[in-house]
Amino acid sequence: MDRFDAMQAFVRVVETGSFTKAAETLHMSKTTVTQLVQQLETRLRVKLLNRTTRKVNVTADGLAYYERALRLLADLDDAETSLSSASAAPRGRLRVDVPSPLARHIIVPALPDFLARYPDIQLHLGVSDRPVDIIGENVDCVVRGGELADLSLMARRVADLELGVYAAPAYLAHAGRPAHPRDLEGTHHRVVGFLWARTGKALPYAMHRGDESVHVQGRYALAVDDGNAYLEAGLAGLGMLWLPEYMARGPLSRGELVRIFEDWQQEPMPLYVAFPPNRHVNAKLRVFIDWVVALMAGQAPPAARAG
């Protein structure tokens, strides 16, 4: 039995709650993972996991061993990355998931710089607006806008995204320019609805001007759950949009969008990099997070300068 492989297999089973999922993330067969955990239990002479047909639960002894195993695996990673060559050149596979508009407009265009700096990192980039099971899918980190729903995650706030309301000239030519945000609740105007992944619903937006505050959701004929589709629907004149500045910048400069309610403000949308609390922040994850922070500093104003 390879003790390192057995320890790693056990940790992944605990984190995913499944031998099958652990095998998938480790690129092993389920049989191999099962055998490694069984051999580990035999060696330690304790039961680490309780198995049923539906789920796997960690025992009290298993939980104590899991916590120590995490520290040992982290120490091993530190020992490897502390070598000068490893510290100078982070290497290995890095799994990241980012929202589709951020990938399209900011992350992917800037990736040649990141990969030139760190040629030994193999980046697996998931592009989606869906919730991601970071542990179950063995993702190293996610980049997400809005307040985080899972408070158990570790997170670093990397930007504050300025929001505005926009419409295509074709929409305004047809429907006219609304004078007040409440006009969007009437029958004459339409917005494009965005279905937030956490709720599956379109949520209202808080706007304020001086002492006046309103919450506006608007009426929509179309709601989508993808940021790029949301933007395209607005460009097609299907309704008004709430957009972060980085998404509106290009269409605004080309005359494809017009900003509405410029005298109204909204709270900036926070942008986070989040990762599991028990996941060691190794060299490759650390340099990616620092790169995203620096990248967003040039793309979005921090809260102190926003508004």
Automatic annotation (TrEMBL):
GO terms for molecular function: DNA-binding transcription factor activity; sequence-specific DNA binding. SUPFAM superfamilies: Periplasmic binding protein-like II (SSF53850), Winged helix' DNA-binding domain (SSF46785). Residues 1-59 form the HTH lysR-type domain. It holds the Pfam family HTH_1. InterPro entries: LysR-type_TF_proteobact-type (IPR058163), LysR_HTH_N (IPR000847), LysR_subst-bd (IPR005119), WH-like_DNA-bd_sf (IPR036388), WH_DNA-bd_sf (IPR036390). GO terms for biological process: DNA-templated transcription. Transmembrane segments: none annotated. The keyword DNA-binding applies. The keyword Cytoplasm does not apply. Keywords: DNA-binding, Transcription, Transcription regulation. It comes from the Bacteria. CDD domains: PBP2_CrgA_like_3. PANTHER family: HTH-TYPE TRANSCRIPTIONAL REGULATOR, LYSR-FAMILY REGULATORY PROTEIN. Belongs to the LysR transcriptional regulatory family. This is Transcriptional regulator, LysR family.
